[in-house]
Write a structure and sequence with these properties.
By secondary structure, the chain is α/β, with parallel strands linked by helices. The chain contains 14 helices and 17 strands. It has two domains: 140 residues, Alpha-Beta Complex (Aspartate Aminotransferase, domain 1), CATH 3.90.1150.10; 253 residues, Aspartate Aminotransferase, domain 2. Helix content is 36%, strand content 15%. The strands form five sheets. The chain has a seven-stranded mixed sheet, with helices on both faces. The two termini are 12 Å apart. The relative contact order is 0.18.
């Protein structure tokens, strides 16, 4: 099952890890704009992540599971601590100073999210608990407003369960139908076959931007264009795209775009739903309670416009502040620099893993984010994960909440190494060395 190692693709303008240039911004420094012309120093980035100094079983921690949840830089931790220690209060409803300060910081988080994905207005940014809740919100509200029995939603074979199960619930409730856009054996998204699924009963396309299990980057701009040519709106699950790619929702022309805070080096408990203003305000509320109302009597309730109509109750205040700090941090590094760094790590990992006897990489799409799934002869994925953990290497094992995708590929589980802004080639080498023990044990 060993495969030939591919040629490493050199990314134009790629910065050599550790290179420093005069005037370099310190990682985490809050600066206007995106510092993509500055050098990328991975060791200085690593110094911002306290957890990376930990040891596991007496070995330095090698964290290769950022696709599940990324680690948090000190700048995010400090921003959240400061919010709790110096300016915490409930938001929007208080006239006292603490409430005003906390409201300003909370709404600044919303503004930073809007900037990060180039939304037209911060009013197009809804805070949710995570991307899963954002996807469920659209499924529930859009379904209630615009769908009936026999209507169709088109998704892909690459989806995370979070973009499958909500549609199953809607199918049970309303009798809608799911249609599945296919992939080829390498994990490439098949654009023409997708377009052929669009028909007179298609009411929505709900599509991942990047596969969490095998890293495939879907040509989402073209997906949206072809759907819009048929008058069909598009919801994008950007959970794995937001940490790695430059997202411009206006350029994509996405109707809805969801991602989660904890994968972009922010806290858990905070997610984002972007929606075009006209799309959001055409939907009924998701939940009822405080904050989302304009007025309430015992006879009826009237609701605010988006985003507040979808944010019932006290929100994740400090988490939104932490998410804003995470966005500041990523922009201080420069997203093009991040992409170049991660592309180099992906190419190196693909080559090195290809040298491991009995190892097969799963997912060889032409366009990939920094995720590598693999299997090994005679070894179950859980055995792989357990053995490399003893060497201090953290990888994810299992079906990655993408069981239909793995079934399509003839598998039940893989091991997955996912790379982020703090990973190095030396850590890839540590993974390969640990996999040597797997080869020795399982032959």
């Amino acid at each position: 099952m060993n495969e030939a190692a591919p040629t490493i693709q050199v990314v134009p303008g790629q910065v050599v890890p550790g290179q420093v240039v005069p005037g370099q911004v310190v990682p985490g420094q809050v600066v206007p704009g995106d510092n993509s012309t500055l050098a990328y120093d991975v060791e200085r980035v690593r110094a911002d992540f306290p957890i990376l100094t930990q040891e596991v079983f007496g070995r330095p921690l090698v964290f290769l599971d950022s696709a599940a949840s990324a680690q948090k830089p000190r700048q995010v931790l400090d921003a959240m601590d400061d919010a709790y220690e110096t300016a915490y209060s409930n938001v929007h409803r208080g006239v006292h100073r603490m409430s005003q300060l906390c409201t300003d910081a909370f709404e600044a988080g919303r503004e930073k999210v809007a900037r990060y994905i180039n939304a037209g207005s911060s009013d197009e940014i809804v805070f949710t608990r995570n991307a899963t809740e954002a996807l469920n919100l659209v499924a529930d509200c859009f379904g209630r407003a615009f769908m009936k029995a026999g209507d169709e939603v088109v998704i892909s074979a690459l989806e995370h369960h979070s973009n499958i199960v909500p549609w199953h619930l809607l199918k049970e409730r309303l009798g809608i139908e799911l249609r599945i856009a296919p992939i080829d054996d390498d994990g490439n998204f098949l654009l023409d076959e997708f377009e052929a699924l669009l028909g007179p009963r298609t009411r929505l396309v709900a599509m991942t931007h990047v596969s969490n299990a095998i890293g495939t980057i879907v040509p989402i701009k073209e997906v949206i264009a072809r759907a819009h040519a048929r008058g069909v709106p598009v919801l994008v699950d950007g959970s794995q795209a937001a940490p790695h790619l430059r997202i411009d929702v206006q350029d994509l022309d996405a109707d809805f775009y969801a991602f989660t805070g904890h994968k972009v080096y922010g806290p858990t408990g905070i997610g984002v739903l972007y929606g075009k203003s006209e799309r959001l305000n055409a939907l009924p509320p998701y939940q009822g309670g405080g904050e989302m109302i304009a007025s309430v009597t015992f006879e009826k309730s009237e609701f605010k416009a988006a985003p507040h109509r979808f944010e019932a109750g006290t929100p994740a205040i400090v988490e939104a502040i932490g998410l804003g700090a995470a966005i500041d941090y990523l922009e201080s590094l420069g997203r093009d620099n991040i992409a170049a760094h991660e592309s180099g790590i992906l190419a190196y990992a693909t080559q090195r893993l290809g040298e491991v006897p009995g190892l097969t990489i799963i997912g060889r799409a032409r366009e990939k984010a920094s995720i590598v799934s693999f299997v090994m002869e005679n070894a179950h994925a859980h055995d792989i994960g357990t053995i490399v953990d003893r060497a201090g290497v953290a990888v994810r094992t299992g079906h990655h909440c993408a069981q239909p995708l793995l079934q399509r590929l003839g598998l039940t589980a893989t091991a997955r190494a996912s790379f982020g802004i703090y990973n190095t080639r030396e850590e890839v080498d540590a993974l390969v060395e640990a996999l040597g023990a797997v080869s020795e044990i399982f032959g």
